[in-house]
Amino acid sequence: MLNRVIFICLSLSLYCAGAFQSCRWIDNRFKQYSEKSLALLDSMARNCTNLTEDAAAEDTVAFPNNLYHQASNASAEDKINFLVQMLNQTSALFEEDQSSASWKENTAENLINIITRQADCLRACIGSHGRKNNKKLNMYFKRLSTHVLKKMGYSTEAWELIRKEIKTHLMRADLLVSSLLATN
Disulfide-capable partner of 119 in 87, 138, 161, 172 (CB 3.0 to 4.6 Å)? Predict the structure, then answer.
C-alpha cells in the first residue's frame, strides 16, 4: 500500500512538472500574440505635451521592477501565474472609461481580446495548480487606476501614461517568457 501511495505521489509530481514543458502554446503562439498587442499599443500612441502631469503620475506609481525581478527568479509555474495576473489586471484596466482616450474603441477592444487570450492560454498551461495572486502587483494596478486614471479624470494624458506603462509590462512579459523557453 505504501509503495502504491509513493508511486502515485511521484507520478503526480512528474506530471505537474511536465505539464508546463508540454505547453506548446508558449513556444509557438505567445510571441505572435505579444507582437500583436505591442503593435496595437504603438498604434494607440499619442504625442502628449503635458510633461509635468506625466512626471507627477510616474512618481506616484513607480513601475514594479522588483516584482519582475522576483518573478524572474521564481519557478516556471509561478512565472506563469504572475504573467496571468498581470495580463488580467491589464485587461481590467483597459475596460475603464476610455471616452477621452485618443484611440478608437475597437482598437482597445482588440487589445483586450488579445491580452485576455494570452492570459487564458497561459492559465491552461499550468491548469489549476496555481492561481496565487501577487498582492503587491494587485495594489500596483489599483494605484494605476486610482492615482493615474481617476485622479487625472480619465484624460487623454492619463490614458497615454497607462499605454506606456502597459507597453513596458508587455515587454517585460516577453522577457519572462523567454526565460521560460530558455530553461526547457
Answer: 87
Written as one letter, the residue type at 12 is L
CA separation, residue 30 to residues 33, 40, 48, 101, 125 (Å): 5, 15, 31, 27, 12
pTM summary value: 0.81
- Cell triple for residue 83? 504573467
Q: Which residues of 39-65 are buried (b: 16+ CB within 10 A; e: fewer)?
A: ebbeebeeebeeeebbeebeeebeebe
- Contact between 99 and 154 under an 8 Å Cβ cutoff? The reply is yes
Q: Which residues fall within 8 angstroms of residue 97, CB to CB, at 6 or more apart?
A: 149, 154
Overall residue count recorded for the chain in this entry: 184
List Cβ neighbours of 134 (8 Å cut-off, separation of 6 or more).
Answer: 67, 81, 82, 85
Residue of 54, 87, 60 lying closest to 145 (CA atoms)? 60
H helices present in 94-151, as ranges: 105-126, 135-143
Q: What is the DSSP letter of 61?
A: S
* CA distance to 9, 11, 54, 130, 172, per residue, from 165 (Å): 43, 42, 11, 26, 11
CA-based radius of gyration for the chain:
19
User: What pLDDT, in 10s, does the model give residues 4-45?
Assistant: 434 443 343 333 344 444 488 888 889 999 999 999 999 998
